[in-house]
Write a structure and sequence with these properties.
- The chain is α+β, with helices and mostly antiparallel strands.
- Helix 1 runs parallel beside helix 6 and helix 3 crosses helix 6.
């Protein structure tokens, strides 16, 4: 599914075409997403101007007068920009027509995404209030990881993928960060030292920043706001490379299942 870098890439891609523009029309072709699209969505937002688009974890927040559009891309969703020359595709479920003439289309074959309208402080919404810090913020550091991990028997990879610990470290980026930090993903979270957690925190920031800079990871369903795929997949060290040689030591990469997710690592370089 789209992970934090893909969502951030989408935010950056659509912002210049949507921010400060007025929503002139809303078309909902399919309202049955993970949760139903509000029946009065058009009534609430048509005629309103979009403010600065924000991202919290994997959610996009589009502020308008009276509230925020809260958008989640789910497993296969994407937001694409078009000027209307292209006919809607089969899974183009929602469309916002902006005063600039651009259309913002939401495409989601699996319909696991969601669009809601919320009032008040969006960060107090039930979907956001319990989330951990943003991984690229100063609130996230190795000391926090070390403190929260004490007594935890869960694998460290599962631990750093917990959104209450830190948001946005999904399967791809957790695997890559653990490789950079030289930590075996199977190790118990509570048995890793402060020094190594500081290395892991730095690795998480490094891999996410690089992915955002390069436009996200090329996944089957992901495209940016302009319809372009990401390019970070070209630099992956371990994810999706089970059985291939390690880029550091040439040993075959191993794959195990942690938290019901495939995890690839190097038993020589990661201890």
């Amino acid at each position: 599914m789209p992970e934090l870098p893909e969502v951030e890439t989408t935010r950056r891609g659509i912002a210049p075409f949507v921010e400060n523009e007025r929503i002139e029309e809303v078309t909902v072709r399919e309202s049955r997403l993970r949760s139903p699209v509000p029946a009065d969505l058009a009534e609430r937002i048509v005629g309103e101007r979009v403010g600065t688009i924000l991202r919290r974890a994997k959610y996009l927040l589009l502020p308008v007068a009276g509230g925020h559009l809260l958008w989640h891309l789910g497993m296969s969703g994407s937001l694409r920009l078009t000027q209307g020359q292209d006919a809607p595709k089969r899974h183009d479920h929602i469309e916002l027509r902006m005063s600039s003439g651009w259309l913002l289309r939401y495409h989601d074959p699996r319909r696991f995404g969601a669009l809601d309208f919320i009032t008040g402080d969006p960060l107090t919404d039930r979907r956001l209030i319990r989330l951990g810090p943003e991984p690229l913020s100063d609130d996230f550091d190795g000391d926090r990881l070390h403190r929260l991990s004490r007594g935890k028997r869960a694998a460290v990879k599962t631990f750093i993928m917990d959104n209450a610990v830190v948001v946005g470290v999904g399967n791809i980026y957790a695997a890559e960060a653990l490789f950079i930090a030289g930590i075996d993903p199977r190790r118990a979270a509570g048995r890793i030292s402060l020094e190594r957690y500081r290395l892991l925190c730095a690795a998480i920031k490094q891999v996410l920043a690089a992915a955002i800079e390069q436009g996200g990871t090329t996944l089957r369903d992901f495209v940016s706001g302009q319809g372009e795929p990401g390019y970070f997949a070209q630099r992956l060290n371990v994810y999706g490379r089970a059985g291939e040689p390690c880029r550091r030591c040439a040993a075959p990469l191993l794959q195990v299942t942690l938290g019901q997710r495939a995890s690839v690592f190097c038993a020589t370089c990661q201890r």
